[in-house]
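Dissemination and training. As part of the outreach component of the grant, students in the summer workshop were shown how a complex can be specified as a set of sequence lines and then modelled as a single object. The example used during the hands-on session is reproduced here so that future cohorts can follow it. Participants entered these lines:
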Amino acid sequence: MNAVVMNLTLRGLLGRRRSVLLVILPVLLLLLAALIRWASGGEVRSSVNLTNEFAMGTLLPLICLLIGTGVIGSEIDDGSIVYLLAKPVPRRTILLSKLVIAWGAALVFAVLPIVAAVEIAGDDGGRLGAAYGVAAALAAVAYTAIFVALSVATRNAVIVGLLYALLWETVLGGYVPGVRNVSVRQWALAAAERILGDRATVWGVTSEVSLTAALALLAVATIGAVVLAVRRLQTLRLTSAD
Amino acid sequence: MSTLVLDSVSRWYGNVVAANDVTMTIGPGVTGLLGPNGAGKSTLIAMMGGFLAPSAGTVTLDGAPVWRHPEIYRAIGLVPEAEAMYDMVTGWQFVVANARLHRLPDPEGAARAALETVEMMDAKDRDIATYSKGMKQRVKMATALVHDPSVLLLDEPFNGMDPRQRLHLMDLLRRLGEQGRTVLFSSHILEEVEEIAGTIEVIVAGRHAASGDFRRIRRLMTERPHQYTISSSDDRRLAAAIIADGSADTVDLRAGNLAVQAPDFGRFVHALPRLARDSGVRLFEVSPADESLESVFTYLVAR
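and obtained this result:
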């Protein structure tokens, strides 16, 4: 871990104009949660609906995409990453430092707002909030690593990431049952299902995969993404179109 | 003292060859990498700086390969062509951050020295986003100098500079070269290069076209046949006089005006007004037909 890389990364992530979205999206979620509370009077099933579909299905991948591309993609695009790469610092250290910032940002801008939204919309003594907190944290770790790797691997990371987040996770996952087995969201929900125990079925927090498989798949996806990202950064081609 | 060696280096992107079997040794002093736009200068600098793998051949710094070897950056300072930096920090913070990334024992002191060298101490506390192009260029230079590198690679450093900044940078590069550093910069302007570079490497269409000190390169460029298009009150009579004088070896009247190819630039431009006066012909227009840098370089390659 390198403090200078982390510092520059954090300032780069928060200093850009699109970081406004990192605030707007969670605020939107909290407003929706308040609306649902007002409409349903704090019923847990409504809270689950909001969190399953909007928070876990759309908001979380979107924010992780913003963060994952924001910590490294923008610098690769405009070429400023050369100032980090032209240093006697292992590329692995550079990537991991950026990833740590990305995970921290995902915790602040996605995981905590999701927990807060659950509490606002309706919970049963904090159980649902805790379950979704763990699920969102697991999903955030995997999503962020995947989107960081995508940013290093392709200049079209935002487009590819959007297609993945919206088409694969949301639309295809809704129609094609098999796709749901290969979905970060489903893997993460397996943890929430286990934490809720008997209430999971009552409230409708269910996953397509078993907990063991889910955790293994999450680990494989995350570690695989990190390894790929480090490798691609080690051989990153940096040259203006001459 | 460091030496960069390119040994039969080629680089291609798909079917496009950006560098074609280039062999050169860049030692201490200032070297200019001269070539028209698109000749492959940036590709070569990217390979020298370890940011691009050669498709064939090797690039070594004092015997060690530069590709996938971040340790070389202790010895190399890089000034990229791209203008983007970390806009949301001040010049001072950015140069200090670069010093810290090099793990220098005294990052603040090193940053101060580098910013003083490029004369940016006055504006050091402003955000980089507020800097002019020339100021950004100087901060880039400071980040490259902060760890006192023995090799400095600059990609088109004079682009976008006003004349005063240009003189300042030329002076700085000359000084760095005199200190025994290996300084390599690319440019497409001969005058810029010959002003400060002890050695000039000419690159055209990915090939290493010529190498030597500026006198040799200048001579190669001025002693090539020069072509002129002339319009006058009597092209035919003027053509006869030029042929008789012997200062041009080809005279062509087909295109409606007079096209001349002269082997000796100096002799021809002195002879032409005299020949015109002596034969009573009025010159309306004399224009060099191929003075673009491109054609000069093309000549060097075809030679």
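Chain B has two domains: 4-221, 224-302. Students were then asked to discuss how this feature might be tested experimentally.
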